[in-house]
Design a protein that fits this description.
Ubiquitin Conjugating Enzyme; Alpha-Beta Plaits; 2 domains; 9 strands; Phi-like; RWDD2A-B_C; RWD domain containing 2B; RWD_dom
């Protein structure tokens, strides 16, 4: 069905090799390998507004597939950020309603083919009009810091998305994969909200904003001087994936003592109790 690499690309060759060894019986393990192959389905779709348009579906199977829905994201240069987020949400809703417990990747491809034109049209119609200068007061800019909690973060595609989206949006902070999963992003409020809108529509067992901080930039600080810039409020330099002595059978648990020390060094140790209900030390 997808005979060439221009249509189907396997992105995790190690996971594929491990699975092939297990299926062929050459692996010594009695249980399937924990990693799962991830792949890209690449399509060129003819749209009325933009002609031939490249669309990529990124797919990752959980170990319980098809009982558990796969992680599928859609990338298309013809979509605005808002419509990119909306197509993810609508596709996941369609799959949950119509394909629960069944193989569904081809259904997802067909759904995108049938509905992409609608989302591109919405993107074009929602393109912002030229901004006219106005004498009205400028809207207040706000610095935000979001502390996100997930039951776990294992999937390599999700971890890659978190890193890429944070850098694309100019956010600093960190992500801690494993169980539990923690993500902190900080920067302009609009960028933080855009990051959260993308992350939350992915397939998660549980994800939430556990705590948030919002600081108006034109407020006065304790020394009566006005806070002038986003960067003056950042506690992190850049964005990184942080690992704290991974352990456990799958190496998916982090040393919470090291996490506390990391937060303490960044001046964020109070959030440890918010996450775990205990004081760190």
């Amino acid at each position: 069905m997808f005979p060439t690499r221009e249509e189907l690309e396997l992105t995790d060759q190690l996971a594929l090799a491990e699975l092939r060894d297990y299926v062929e019986g050459s692996a010594s393990a009695d249980t399937p390998p924990p990693s799962r192959p991830q792949f890209l389905i690449k399509q060129k779709l003819d749209t009325a507004n933009m002609g031939m348009t490249d669309v990529i579906l990124s797919c990752a199977y959980p170990s319980e597939y098809p009982s558990v829905m796969p992680e599928i994201t859609v990338r298309c240069g013809g979509l605005s950020r808002a419509q990119q987020t909306q197509i993810h949400a609508d596709l996941n809703a369609f799959l949950m309603e119509n394909c629960q417990g069944e193989v569904c990747v081809l259904s997802a491809v067909d759904w995108v083919k049938d509905n992409l034109q609608l989302f591109i049209s919405r993107s074009l119609s929602a393109a912002p009009a030229p901004v006219k200068e106005s004498s009205s007061p400028r809207s207040e800019e706000v610095f935000s810091r979001l502390w996100i909690y997930s039951h776990h973060i294992y999937n390599k595609t999700k971890r890659k998305n978190i890193l890429e989206w944070s850098k694309e949006l100019g956010l600093s902070g960190f992500s801690m994969p494993g169980k539990p999963g923690i993500v902190c992003v900080e920067g302009p409020q609009s960028a933080c909200e855009e990051f959260w809108s993308r992350v939350k529509v992915l397939t998660w067992k549980k994800i939430m904003i556990r705590h948030r901080e919002d600081i108006p930039l034109d407020r006065q600080g304790e020394d009566s001087r006005t806070v002038e810039s986003i960067d003056s409020l950042r506690k992190f330099t850049g964005f990184e994936e942080a690992m704290f002595d991974p352990h456990g059978n799958r190496g998916n648990h982090m040393d919470l003592g090291q996490l506390y020390q990391f937060l303490n060094e960044k001046g964020c140790c109070d959030v440890f109790q918010i996450y775990f209900g205990i004081e760190g030390r």
